[in-house]
């Protein structure tokens, strides 16, 4: 069974702090493979173009998306109910 999507911290750790394209074993579908070779197969590609933004796609399970490191200021404003945000939008409340 495939777990939830990657968090920003997981994606950053997998990319190892490198910029550009990085290939790695997919932590979402790799552990379900029977063969140790297939568990380690590098099917997940991560693109890190900015320290706060990582996009990814797995050629095996099709998981794809992007993750953004939220600024502490944004998180503080959200906890004070001054702004709201979801995957696509940021708005004032």
Please provide a written account of the structure.
The chain has 93 residues and is of the alpha+beta class. The protein has one domain (8-92). Helix content is 23%, strand content 31%. The chain has helices at residues 8-15, 36-40, 72-79, and strands at 20-24, 44-50, 53-58, 64-68, 83-85, 90-92. It has a four-stranded antiparallel sheet with strand order 1-2-3-4, with helices on one face. The protein has a two-stranded antiparallel ribbon with strand order 5-6. Strand 2 (44-50) and strand 3 form a beta hairpin. The chain is elongated, with a radius of gyration of 16 Å. The termini are far apart. The model has no long low-confidence stretch (mean pLDDT 81).
Overall pLDDT = 81
What is the helical fraction, as a range of percent? 10-25%
Shape: elongated
**Tally of separate helices:** 3
Summarize the helices and strands and which ones pair or pack.
Elements: H1 8-15, E1 20-24, H2 36-40, E2 44-50, E3 53-58, E4 64-68, H3 72-79, E5 83-85, E6 90-92
Antiparallel strand pairs: 1-2, 2-3, 3-4, 5-6
Overview features:
93 residues, alpha+beta, two-stranded antiparallel sheet, 6 strands, 23% helix
Concise account of the structure shown:
The protein has 93 residues and is an alpha+beta fold. Helices cover 23% and strands 31% of the residues.
């Amino acid at each position: 069974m495939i777990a939830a999507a990657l968090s920003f911290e997981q994606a950053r750790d997998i990319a190892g702090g490198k910029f550009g394209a990085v290939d790695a074993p997919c932590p979402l579908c790799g552990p379900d493979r029977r063969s140790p070779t297939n568990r380690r197969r590098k099917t997940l590609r991560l693109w890190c173009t900015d320290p706060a933004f990582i996009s990814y796609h797995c050629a095996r399970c099709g998981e794809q998306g992007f993750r953004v490191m939220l600024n502490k200021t944004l998180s503080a404003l959200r906890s004070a109910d001054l702004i709201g945000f979801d995957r696509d939008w940021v708005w004032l409340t």
